[in-house]
Amino acid sequence: MTEDVGVDVDGDDELLTIGAFAARARLSAKALRLYDRLGLLAPAHVDEANGYRYYRAAQIERARLVALLRQLDMPLALIGELVELAERDGPAASGRLAAYWADVEARHASRRTLSDYLRGRLSGRSSEMAELYGKFVVETVDVPERVVLTETRHTLADELPAWIGASLGRLEAGAREFGGVTAAPFVVYHSEVSMESDGPAEACVPVADETAARAWAEAHGRARGTAVRVEPARRLAYTRISKAQVAHPQIIAAFEAVERWMSREGIEATGLCREVYFADWEAAGPDDAVCDIAFPI
Fold first, then answer.
1. In which residue ranges of the chain is pLDDT below 50?
2. Residue ranges of the HTH merR-type domain (predicted)?
């Protein structure tokens, strides 16, 4: 008997050899073996004597769906989740796919914008880049010494926005238990955060009561790296950006604008760069100012 004919095992419904199944699914036997190894499509039966794989005709739709989803460069874990969901609830699976693809398109748009920025930067069109991403006005401000409730995490760039929102939300909720937030929250970068470098980043919420903050951090925050420290009085060089400009590469251009200003003025940074979030993020529109990109000087 070869692998290319249908067989019947133990009087059960007809099973198809891997060759016959591959032909009907319009896939290769190699692809089916890969799907099995990845846990996406297991054979209905494997002959213990010769190792031949057999499939049911009812598995053809799943096999084709897996093949199509792989063409979208979808993560394997998500493919497995989606094909399982599709067998239970087609509309829900469709919605999950739509959400995934919306995220793909958003990331592609961001990369396209970053590519345009880099092309301009490499070609020396700095004035064009300034027009494209906004003319950044750099100013200085003095901030007093403050007690801050903090949460620190090593994170890559793709996880950073979600972590910033979640961590500041947790810290602000904690601060409300002992007097509230006394100034704009901010995020300090102790090292570069990119797709290759994971910081760490430190979310900071100014609070009034240091003793109460330390007690709260001890009780609630060990697992998340929560702590309390005193942020010294500083002078900051900063530029203010809109909600739309918080995205890459606009935010990169904003950091570079402050660095260029310091270089022109002969001023050196005396501390770590930071983002100061002074507005209600959810309520803000794309053109509303929400954040200061700042360097201690």
1. 1-5, 9-11, 131
2. 15-85
Q: Give me the pLDDT at residue 123, please.
A: 78
Residues 6+ positions from 97 with CB-CB distance below 8 Å? 82
| pLDDT given for residue 120 in this prediction | 75
pTM score above 0.85: no
For the chain, which residues make up each domain, given as ranges?
16-88, 95-133, 138-296
**pLDDT computed for residue 11 by the predictor:** 46
- Ranges of beta strands (E only) in the chain are 16-17, 45-46, 53-55, 138-143, 146-153, 186-189, 201-207, 226-231, 234-242, 274-277, 289-296
Which phi and psi angles does 258 have, rounded to 5°? -65, -40
Which of 276, 201, 190, 202 shows the shortest CA–CA distance to 239?
276
Number of residues written out for the chain = 297
DSSP state letters, 273-287: -EEEE-S-TTT--TT
Residue 220: its pLDDT value, please? 80
CA distances from 14 to 5, 18, 27, 174, 224 (A): 11, 13, 20, 62, 54
Looking at residue 129, its pLDDT comes to 53
pLDDT of residue 97: 95
CATH of domain 16-88: 1.10.1660.10
Tokens for 292, please give them: 């200061």
- Sheet strand arrangement including 234-242: 138-143, 234-242, 289-296, 274-277, 186-189, 201-207, 146-153, 226-231
138-296 under CATH 3.20.80.10, yes or no:
yes
